UniProtKB/TrEMBL annotation:
Protein name (database record): Family 43 glycosylhydrolase
UniProt entry keywords in alphabetical sequence: Glycosidase, Hydrolase
GO molecular function, one term: hydrolase activity, hydrolyzing O-glycosyl compounds
A family per Pfam: Glyco_hydro_43
Listed InterPro entries: Glyco_hydro_43, Glyco_hydro_beta-prop_sf
Taxonomy, superkingdom: Bacteria
SUPFAM superfamilies: Arabinanase/levansucrase/invertase
Organism field: Bacteroides uniformis
Family named by the database record: Belongs to the glycosyl hydrolase 43 family.
Biological process, per Gene Ontology: carbohydrate metabolic process
Amino acid sequence: MNKKLFCIICFLWPLLAYSQKYHSFRPGELWLDNNGVHINAHGGGFIFYNNKYYWFGEHKIEGEKGNYAQVGVHCYSSSDLYNWNDEGIALKVSSEPNSDIAQGCILERPKVIYNPNTKKFVMWFHLEPKGKGYTGALSGIATANKITGPYTFIRSTRTTPGCYPVNVLDLHKCPVKQSTIDKKLYGGGLNGEHPDTLNILGRDFKEGQMARDMQLFVDDNGKAYHIFASETNSTIHIAELTDDFLDYTGKYVRAFVNRYMKAPAIFKKDGLYYFMGSGCTGWKPNAARSAVAPSIWGPWTELGNPCQGENSETTFHSQSTYILPVSGRKNVFIYIGDRWNPQNAIDGRYIWLPIDFQDNRFNIHWHNEWDLKYFDCK
């Protein structure tokens, strides 16, 4: 192709894409917004409000530099889930170098919920201050009066400081060994040692527990919960939020102890709570995990990998970020995952797939292309 023709195509492609209307999902393919620009909302969270869906996610830039927050949290809106309008940057990183959300920090998996008592939209996200790697394991909180923002950063925090979980063990209240205190276990694992042997929970009791990959869930009764990977990613914590959704009540449980689950997603169907997550292999995809419980507090029963068929062992080359209930449709849910590209962060793709149910289990199969009519025969 001659250079002149190539330039013409590059110029016209966004204009053609702008007029394009999507009528289906094509997992892994480039997905353009109303401006003909790829949707840039990774590690996303979703909320349905005033008859529209809103998608919040990490805004990435090109190259490995895009793995750090250079812009902020991007927001999109849609009335049909196929076509998305760019609503701009909902939460901007700060140009103030001493800010917790200074440009270059790590800001991951933003989720937004609406508080009917305060009339505020509340955003939580995993936060690591700039230049400190993953040593912080903090949660960031921001609020807005309007769903699309702008969101104002409120604070960052460790979780549930000074509180023991509902299912605390006696060993957690024992004096913590100096060797455990001295361990700088901020990476992906505990080098084969059990978190209870080291008493990581006890080590972090006063300062607050670690929180990395996270999710928010609002139950039918309006109670909100923060679900996150804790204790150096070895254990999931599920913590109840205060009525304003801005803090913890102090009530929480440990789940999946020593199972090293990340990327948590929780949804509810027919009175049962379902969990989906991944293992801990960094940016590389792995086999998904799933579980079911009669209560948000458990007990949780693992169900294995919900993905079926070819490439199921890598969750179809993706990692869970959200399970989306389709508004107006009973028991209709969509798996939403990220196909990360850490070498060129902006080119991460999105995997949306329908969820099937059988005997209190859920399954996910690959589809090159599908639409919401898939659920009509279910």
